[in-house]
Amino acid sequence: MPEALLIIDVQNDFLPDGALAVPDGDQVIGPINALAADPRFDVVVATRDWHPADHDSFVDQGGPWPAHCVQGTPGAELSADLRREAIDAVIDTGTVRGDEGYSGFEGEELRELLRSEQVDAVTIVGLATDVCVKHTAADALREGLQVTIETAGVRGIDARDSREALRGLAESGAQVN
Ligand SMILES: [Zn+2]
Q1: 66, 69, 78, 162: most buried by Cβ count inside 10 Å?
Q2: What's the CA-to-centroid distance between 43 and ligand 1, angstroms?
Q3: Partners of 11 in the beta sheet?
Q4: Separation of 109 CA from ligand 1 center, angstroms?
């Protein structure tokens, strides 16, 4: 049963001192690196939030978030502490103004990659639990994939929203460890 590890948005802007820092976001990196080295994963995918400077989600454009993960800026880069050699593919989301980029399945690239590898189970880690992890996991369940969330490898923006997100995903059939 081919299994993929999906590492969601472990980018500098979501880490301490970033433009949209997730509390304790850097604590996911150790657990994620350990998982990325686990031979049970046939494919390891990292996603990036990868926005144009005038993205609809930014406060300046009437959106909910401060500007973050602008294409080509240091804040948009994956953390230098991630084990890059373990990552097989990087998939960008929210790449045009109107694409919110909350789910790794927003475009077709991730779906096609998982299909080509005949993946039927995914383990999801990364940032942030209550936004992109939640949306990606919900879409993975809709795709019919077996979904595991490793809570040691996720952190959220809002603690209560994150708890609710994990509870909702578990109710929808995800394994929350
Ligand atoms: Zn974003």
Answers
A1: 69
A2: 24
A3: 78
A4: 18
For ligand 1, the distance from its centroid to the CA atom of residue 60, given in whole angstroms, is 13
| Contact call for residues 177 and 151 (beta carbons, < 8 A) | yes
CATH number of the domain to which 100 belongs? 3.40.50.850
> In whole numbers, what is the pLDDT of the chain averaged over residues?
97
Show Cβ contacts of residue 51 under 8 Å, excluding neighbours closer than 6 positions: 57, 58, 67, 68, 69, 70, 71, 76, 94, 95, 101
Q: What is the whole-number distance in angstroms between the Cα of residue 39 and the centre of ligand 1?
A: 31
Residues of the domain holding 15: 3-176
Please give the tally of structural domains in the chain: 1
153/151 Cα distance (integer angstroms): 5
117 alpha carbon to ligand 1 midpoint, in Å? 27
Is-above-0.85 flag for pTM? yes
**Rounded to the nearest whole angstrom, what is the distance from the C-alpha of residue 168 to the centroid of ligand 1?**
22
What is the whole-number distance in angstroms between the Cα of residue 49 and the centre of ligand 1? 5
Nearest to 104 by CA among 79, 141, 67: 141
What pLDDT, in 10s, does the model give residues 133-157?
999 999 999 999 999 999 999 999 9
